[in-house]
């Protein structure tokens, strides 16, 4: 029994010595700031300009519909005493139909999965692919196991600037200072 205990003690001691002398590979972590990267990229400014232009155009169309509804309501109010009940109801239905059109337009353009967000995704996809490829290369170059995005939410409470790899991603994109 004593001999078995000594063998186990020797075995654990030998394994412990091996582990102590073997190189320890720690996981490397870093972070980037995707807002910083996007704002530094010239293509992002072009995308933003195009989206702003489209958005303004669609907002004007929505405002035009709203203005038409207001005019229809004010005309109805002004002519209310001159109209028969049937005529009044017809105009009221026309106003309600125009309101439905305005709501449908706003939902189609600015709603969830609307034209604005589809266009945004379409325009940003090539740029996001470029940035992701650059991030992938930086992670491989620096042997990073995990790379966080500082701009993507409250995941990071503290960040030491020496672990910020945003500048390396900019270099990989060819956008050095």
Instruction: Please estimate the helix content.
Output: over 70%
Give me the side-by-side strand order of the main sheet: 1-2
Write the H/E string, N to C.
HEHHHHEH
Low-confidence stretches: 6-12, 18-22
Radius of gyration: 32 Å
Structural class: mainly alpha
Number of strands: 2
User: In angstroms, what separates the terminal alpha carbons?
Assistant: 71 Å
The largest pleated sheet is described as: 2 strands, parallel
Note the beta-strand portion. under 5%
Estimate the global geometry from the Cα principal axes: rod-shaped
Number of domains: 1
Mean of residue pLDDT values: 84
The helix count comes to 6
Describe the overall structure.
- Helix 3 (42-79) runs antiparallel to helix 5 and helix 5 packs across helix 6.
- Strands 1-2 form a two-stranded parallel sheet.
- It is mainly alpha-helical and 177 residues long.
- The radius of gyration is 32 Å and the shape is rod-shaped.
- 71% of the residues lie in helices and 5% in strands.
- It is built from six helices and two strands; from the N terminus they run H-E-H-H-H-H-E-H.
- It has one domain.
